[in-house]
Amino acid sequence: MLTTQDRKWLDLIRMASTRSRGSLGERDDLLPPKVLRRLERAGFVDRITPHNPVHKDRIVITEAGREALAANPN
Question: I need a labelling partner for 49 at 20 to 30 A (CA). Which of 1, 13, 29, 61 fits?
Answer without folding.
Answer: 1
